[in-house]
Automatic annotation (TrEMBL):
GO terms for molecular function: peptidase activity. Residues 9-60 form the Clp R domain. It comes from Nonomuraea marmarensis. GO terms for biological process: proteolysis. The keyword Protein biosynthesis does not apply. It comes from the Bacteria. This is Clp protease N-terminal domain-containing protein. InterPro entries: Clp_N_dom_sf (IPR036628), Clp_R_N (IPR004176). Keywords: Hydrolase, Protease.
């Protein structure tokens, strides 16, 4: 779906798919898009978060969700497991909508450079119960401040 292109936007999308694979998720969601964006240095600076901190916050959200179901998990082992790649068409409906919104916010000439910025803006617009909204809140990202920095 996203080919072998090396534009910043494609690098972000591929990183998001890799983040989903590493977590063992079957589909790429908006939370993975945020993690993928953090592989892009300008986006990480604008958001004021690093990828390791975002991964830890997402793991904490997962544990909290399990506790709400009555399942207590201790420290999860750090031994990486081998997960199959997430298919390029396996996106959540929210992730697909956010990607489409980011693409529509650009022109063909500016897409490679501007799409990551539009992706950040689209992700910041997401509200609860979308996983990325919960992750943004968990990380303490000030949406208005980020919008003003990248606008």
């Amino acid at each position: 779906m996203f080919g072998r292109e090396r534009t910043p936007f494609h690098v972000v999308i591929k990183a998001a798919f890799e983040e989903a694979r590493q977590r063992g998720d079957r589909r790429m969601g908006t939370e993975h898009l945020l993690l993928g964006l953090l592989h892009e240095p300008r986006a990480a600076r604008a958001l004021g978060v690093d990828v390791a901190g975002a991964r830890a916050a997402l793991e904490e959200l997962d544990k909290a969700a399990l506790r709400m179901l009555g399942l207590e998990v201790g420290d999860m082992p750090r031994v990486p497991r081998k997960h199959p790649p997430v298919p390029g068409t396996a996106l959540t409906s929210s992730a697909r909508a956010v990607i489409n919104q980011a693409i529509k916010g650009t022109t063909m000439k500016t897409r490679s450079a501007e799409a990551p910025r539009h992706l950040v803006l689209a992700l910041l617009q997401q509200g609860r119960p979308d996983p990325v909204a919960q992750l943004v809140d968990q990380l303490g990202i000030d949406r208005a401040a980020v919008r003003s920095r990248i606008a």
